[in-house]
Every structure is written in structure tokens, then in C-alpha cells.
Write a structure and sequence with these properties.
homodimer, 64% helix, DNA-binding
Chain lengths: 207, 207
DNA sequence: CACCAATCTTACCGGCGGTAAGATATCACA
DNA sequence: TGTGATATCTTACCGCCGGTAAGATTGGTG
């Protein structure tokens, strides 16, 4: 039995993602994770600091994964939206902490950077859409000049349609993961849900 | 100092809603709640059983409140969607647990009944819409006949547009509460967010 | 080979959720 | 009116969790 585990950090993240996917963020116990991996409960401290650190790292990893998926989907709103939903279904543990500022450390540089990447991809899609015919849609009133606190994004404010599309994808993902869709008979497997999500998102009509 | 508190159950729920709104469901401590209300930590047990019971009651109360709001909004999809978002902003503590089956007791009769009411209002709106001109939109393939487990709803399956509208409202509410919208300069006060949400939902075009 | 930094362990603390058993107030009913 | 049943709350206890401090083991670097 080696004193050094070897890949404790990655293994902890993977195990955390699995547990959060199964039992939710509140069902996660660092001690249980450590037990499963055969280390004492203080071993994770060195890599993540505390429990919030684990969830923060998980959220950041999720944002990197999502940004990659969205990039691969290209600039098609429909496919990007479907990819968004699919990501949530494929990585429910990550998704469950990515939009939960109460669970993570919002000051983490890793998280801020990863989140910024997702935001850039989303806004870049919005820009591409706006400059390719949808320009007549009008934009939202600008915020009081500049973003609020986290540093203004380099892109223009999100136009209403982009917000609508993002919200629709995010809402479908959330509702699917909560079981609200399967309770309505709208599909239980990821493939079914993805198909239903595509059918819904198709009703979005870019201006 | 009276031995009986008098309104411990309601006070506990209100305090729980406040704490969850401020610190999230994982930041809730029954002992802290009991301390704040001047009772010992086992007093809530009689009313709610355990922590899950408190969150279940909170979720049920939230569903009743939401169903009321949606009913008041009438059958207009736009106003219903805005009301949905507004409800989440007005009752963030309730909303945070209403779609979290990992936190509540899904077998609770009170919760099932309250959730069913919300679902009925949503589906009734969808029905009203479908029978008033949108009937040409086509429906989703029916589920393998009958709902899955919680008993099939008495109404037809949700058409794609209704799913889209619900998802959009739900997504806007979730994103707003997560701070994702304010980070983009899309508004920080409930009124601003509501205005942005209406602008987005207005881009939904019923068939 | 000797030192150093990274990694993991042992030992400890307070707080939380949960359970069992008992005390006290309220209410129904004689 | 008063008395017993019931609802409500308390005291005492348990194990688990997250977090901290201090020390041991390992791998790398001069």
C-alpha cells in the first residue's frame, strides 16, 4: 500500500461528481469520499482546502466541459441548446453545482476563468446570431454602464432572444434533472429527453 | 415564558424560507432555527419529523403559492411566465427546494397534492392554448401509454410549445436566482429582472 | 547524501441530525 | 369543576461530519 495515492485529486473529483449526481450536493460527505478512496478524511484538505473547494473545483470542471460541448456544437442556436441539455444529462453532478453560488467559492480564480469561458461561448453565439440577420431585433437597455462586479464581459449585452434561448435550454435541463419531465411522461432516458428538448427548442424562432 | 410556543410550525417554515433564501438549502440548520425561535432543537420534530420534513413542507407551501400566482395570471402565456419568474424572485427560499427531489420526501401526500395543483394549472394553460388556435402545432409522441409512476395527469401530454414556455420561465428564474443574469448586467433588482424576463418571453411566438 | 516540499496520518474539537424517555400545558368530556 | 388523554416541548444521549493543528512518510533536488 503506497503512502502516496497517486491521483487523489482527480479521483476525488470523479467520486464527488458521482455522489452529487446520485444524492445531490447535500448528500456529499468528504469523509465518505475519503473512505471510499482508501485515505483518511484529511487527505483531501491538501488538494482542495475544504468541502467548498471540492465543489468549486467540480463546478469549474463542469464549466470547462460545457464550454467545450458548446464550442463543438457550433453557432447553431438549436444545436447549442440541445448540447446544453445533453451536457446536463451527461454530467448531472457537475451541473448541480455550476449555478449554485451558495455552494462554491465565487472568488476562486479557476472557477471565474472557467465560468468566463462558458459565458464567452454563449455570448459569442449571440453575437454571431445578431450580426447575421437578427440585428433588427433590438437590444436590451444597457446596464448603468459596465457590468456589475465580476468585470464586464467583453461583448455587448445579451439580446432578448439569446437570453430566451439560454433560459429555455437551462430550464429544460433543470426540469429534466428534477424529474419534472419524466413525471409528465415526457421521457425518462437521456435520449428521449434530448429528443423532447429538441422538439421544444425547435419552436424557438430566431428573428 | 409559555411552555407552548403557539405558532411554532408556521414560524419554523417562515424562518426556514428566510435562511434558505439567504444561504441555500445546505446552509439550513434545524438547531439554529430552533435557537432563533427560543425552543430546543427537538421541538420541530413533533411538527415535521425531521429536516427533510421541513423542506418538504416548504416545497409544498411553495407549490401552493405558485399555483395561486399562476391562476391569478390567467391563461395568457406571457403573463403566466412573468408570474412564474416573479414568484421565484419573491420566494427564493421556496423555489430553491420545489424542484429538488433529493431534498424532500417525494412520498409526502401534502407535497404530491400541492405539486399536482401546480402541474394542473400549467397543463390547463397548455390545453387552453392548444384548443384556441394552436391546435395545428402537433403534439409530442405519447409516452408508452399512461404516465410513468406518479399517476398520469388527467390532461393530454404537454405540447412542445408549452414545454418551451415553461422551460424558459423556469430557466430565467433559475439563472436570475443564481446570479448569472446580474453578472451579465441584465439587472439586479427583482423589478429589473422581471422586465428583462418579460422582454425575453415576449420573443416566444405561439403557433 | 542531505535537505526540502509535497502528501498523507493521528488526534482532537464543536456542531449537527436523530432517537428515546420524560415533563408540562391544553383540551375534551364527565 | 376536575380529571384523564393528548399535544407539545425538554433533557440526555449517540454517531457522523467538517475543520484545525501537529507530526510522519515519501519523492525530488541540490
Amino acid at each position: 500500500m503506497a503512502y502516496h495515492h497517486g491521483s487523489l485529486k482527480e479521483d476525488l473529483l470523479a467520486a464527488a461528481a458521482r455522489v452529487v449526481a446520485e444524492r445531490g450536493p447535500s448528500g456529499l460527505s468528504l469523509r465518505e469520499l475519503a473512505r471510499d478512496l482508501g485515505v483518511t478524511h484529511t487527505a483531501p484538505r491538501h488538494h482542495f482546502g475544504d468541502k467548498q473547494g471540492v465543489l468549486t473545483a467540480l463546478a469549474a470542471q463542469g464549466h470547462r466541459l460545457l464550454a467545450g460541448r458548446l464550442s463543438s456544437a457550433g453557432s447553431d442556436f438549436l444545436e447549442a441548446g440541445v448540447a446544453y441539455v445533453r451536457f446536463a444529462l451527461d454530467h448531472p453532478g457537475h451541473f448541480a453545482v455550476m449555478f449554485r453560488p451558495d455552494l462554491v467559492n465565487d472568488d476562486s480564480d479557476e472557477l471565474k476563468q472557467a465560468r468566463s469561458r462558458t459565458r464567452s461561448v454563449l455570448l459569442a453565439g449571440a453575437e454571431a446570431y445578431a450580426s447575421s440577420g437578427g440585428a433588427a431585433s433590438g437590444r436590451l437597455k444597457n446596464a448603468p454602464s459596465g457590468g456589475t462586479s465580476t468585470g464586464a464581459p467583453p461583448l455587448a449585452d445579451m439580446p432578448p432572444f439569446a437570453l430566451l434561448a439560454w433560459s429555455a435550454a437551462h430550464g429544460m435541463a433543470s426540469l429534466a434533472l428534477s424529474g419534472a419531465l419524466s413525471a409528465l411522461g415526457l421521457g425518462s432516458t437521456p435520449d428521449e429527453v434530448t429528443r423532447v428538448a429538441r422538439a421544444g427548442l425547435q419552436r424557438l424562432t430566431p428573428p
